[in-house]
Amino acid sequence: MKRIIIIGFISVVICIFSYGSVGALRVEDDCKDVEIVFARGSGQSINATEAGRFEGQLRERLGSEVTYHFYELGVEEYNGAKYPAVNVGNWWNGNVIGAFLSSGQRFDYGNSVAAGKTELRGYLERRGHACPNERIILGGYSQGAQVVGEVGRELPDGISSRVDFVALFGDPKLYLPEGEGLFPPACDGKNLSSWRRDIINCRTDNGVLGARKPYLSAAYENKTGLWCNDKDFVCGTSKSPLDTENHLTYGASGAAVDKAAREAAMRLKESLAPEKAGLVDVRIFQPGSGTAGLDVVFVIDTTGSMGGPIDQAKEFARTFAATIKEMRGRVALVAYKDAGDEYAAKLMSGFDDDLTDFQAKLDSLTASGGGDNPEGLLHALNVAFDGLDWKSGATKAAIVLTDEGYHDPDKTDGATEELIAKRALEIDPVNIYAIVPWYTEEAYVSLTEKTSGQVIRNDGDTAAALTTAFTKIKSRPTALLKLAEYSADPGHEIRFDASDSYVIDADITKYEWDFNGDGVFDRTTTEPVTDHTYAEKFDGHMQVRLTANNGTVASASAVVKIGTKVVPVPPKPPKNLAVKVLETKDGQSRVKLSWQLPNDNRAALWRLRINDMPMGVLTPERTSVEITDVLRDQDVTFSLEGLLEDYTPGQTATVTLEKEIQAPPPENSNWLAKLITCVKNVVEAVLGKPPWIKWSY
Amino acid sequence: MKKIWKIIGVIVAIFAVLVGGLLAWLSWEGSPKEIVSVADEFKPGLSWELVREEIIPPRNSCIDVHCPHVHREWQSREPITLKEIRDILEKTGWDDVIVIGSCNWDQQKDGRGHCSAEGDITSKYGVQIYIENDKSKEHSGHITLFVDYKNRV
Q1: Is the dihedral of CA A355, A359, A360, A364 positive or negative?
Q2: How far apart are CA A54 and CA A230, in angstroms?
Q3: Nearest Cβ partner for B152 among A42, A65, A252
Q4: By CB count within 10 A, which of A231, A235, A361, A362 is most buried?
């Protein structure tokens, strides 16, 4: 007994000394006004692009008077855990498959997430205790977004209440309930999740590792922003595993991280003491261009009378490269004359952010030909619209440089002003800016207005007129709609929301709505949101035109599909779904899941998921099922959804079985045991649990 | 019966080749020489000490980790001045890299100052540079350099 006491005493002393020898932990740094914590993505090093940008952007906004402390997960160990952010880029280490098969909850990937959560919780609890007045901003990218998203529900109230904003980028556990089903309710633009940011695809519902349901605890729903770039396989805006390029652009200039930093700053402005709040900078720094930059095509009349303006345009092109780069822009060039000339219109240079080819082609332009006064502009615009690779998400403009009017209809391809306006809208839209002399200004008013562009008078100084055009493009509002496509049945109200739009150093004063894309604006509002009901079938585009008090306009468009598909009525969820533990042994339980059939049950099958992994289907008359070997080392979520005969899913009923605290199982250090465990998990994931195999090692 | 086994064998072989091919494609790593040579154009100050370097080669599958990518960090005993960073960029020939902020630690109460620089450096690559000055630290200057595909900068 005496020996045990002595050993125990020595152990305690060793522990105390070893704890003290850790050195200065970051958690013990001086208290500041704001605590910022970021969790990196899989395989990233500390201070990688997203983390560095997040801190840098917030630093810019807080200035030097509002102090902050930055901690990145994985720098130090807290609560015995240090976030390793295991790599999923190496296809031979099994992390990708392990993450995929376990919905990101088990194997090395799941352990990495668990370590991150433990570290984050430990760090925030200690820091929160030491610095009770700090406001907290959390951020996470990819695997780190999963860590930060999951830990929210585990933080004590004392910490949670001080968290002002949580920024999640490219979360593989994304969940947008409004995007579920074959015809998702999100497509009517209503009831979008409060955490949804810049996710324009109404069909996005879950990330590559399945959805975390519920995605956030109630306390975090209104203070979380989730960004998922278009065509990002990881967070689920694309289902193609090849679409990973956009997963790497969250930290680009003006992209999601920058936007999140601004939103975090806005929240801090509300929560900090007034003398500090006033110092927080919440101005918009983003360039006046869309989420994917700016596409500008120069459409230049090269008929005989244009010699002077073309030479001036060449000179101007050499000086505006910096402006294009600043706006994350690409430029293209189309030259045109008229039907019967050497060429009617030709694409000289495609979109490129490197202006070398553009300038070379511009230098090669010479003015010649041209018979009657009007020229073939409408054909040239058609060439630009159809021949160029316009970037999705970019704001788009066509700058027309001419000294004459245009044939309507065009003599080459019969294009009309109406058709061009419609085509411009379909592309997303392309705003047409016409740089013309005073005597032909009137001829361009209709075309530019229909495309939400403007006429700019050329008084002989073409370079000055081009500068004016660019200034307008640069200072115009950036028009953004919440969704790229809306769909519903006739008679169903749709909500169009342009509240993400912004303008730098000015205010948006007017929103004009054209619900059927005919160029006639049907409603004008001062608010960025409006509802509209289509009485009949419609398959086309709508647009919203924004006017700012700096004299500029811009527009955004979206696809609208009304009643163009037969919408099946999805089955109702089962009622009163409940789970009962029948027996627990060695950390595994046998449970009974029971439910009641809904009235008017349309389900042809019930699909059962455990922790989001599909486990199989049950016949429609079933009202219970027994499940064995349910691992209790974490909360287990059972969900049941009805399926129609064509597998169209209905709403889901969910019940959660809380984890059972138990002693940790012995570590499988034997490589053979690990291998057998891995094979077992793969086989069971593919085949279910074959009764004829007994796993032992 | 023999024929069935043959067919199964062929199917298994095709499947194995496809899976193997896919894994080989996913595991491919190119040479980072090009991006490293671009990053090497940035000549750090003589007194700067390299404290971190990460070079990721081009790959067919990049999830989370940017590839190709160069990440370097230096520290210096003295804070970095705006002039110093501008001179380095000028010598490097990165004319399109724009410096944001003033780096001026000496005008701040807490002795900290920051600035950054970003822009395109070739038709393919862009750069982000972060400078953190903190007079209270033994190494007052900290410089982080990222070279990446330009759409990610």
Answers
A1: positive
A2: 20
A3: A252
A4: A235
What is the C-alpha to C-alpha distance for residues A403 and A441, in angstroms, rounded to an integer?
9
Q: What is the least distance, in Å, from the CA of B46 to any CA of chain A?
A: 23
Asked if A59 is an interface residue toward chain B (Cβ–Cβ < 8 A), one would say yes
Furthest CA-CA distance within chain A: 113
Q: How far is CA A318 from the centre of its chain?
A: 35
pLDDT at A613 over 90: no
The per-residue pLDDT for A17 is 40
CA-to-CA distance for B11 and A692, rounded, in angstroms? 26
**What distance lies between CA A547 and its chain's CA centroid?**
26
User: Residue A11 — φ and ψ, nearest 5°?
Assistant: -60, -45
**pLDDT tens digits, residue range B72-120?**
999 999 999 999 999 999 999 998 788 888 888 766 666 788 888 988 8
Distance to chain B for A32, nearest Cα, Å:
12
Sheet of A636-643: strand order equals: A613-618, A605-610, A636-643, A649-657
> Hey, what are B131's tokens?
């400078």
CA nearest to B96 within chain A: A322
Which residue has 């055009």 as its token pair? Answer: A469
Contact call for residues A203 and A231 (beta carbons, < 8 A): no
Instruction: Quickly state the pLDDT bin for A490 (edges 50, 70, 90).
Output: very high
Q: Which residues pair with A656 in a beta bridge?
A: A637
CB A625 within 8 A of CB A683: no
- A288 pLDDT more than 70: no
| CB A253 within 8 Å of CB B153 | yes
pTM for the model: 0.77
Nearest to A45 among B23, B71, B130 (CB): B71
Predicted-assembly ipTM surpassing the 0.90 threshold: no
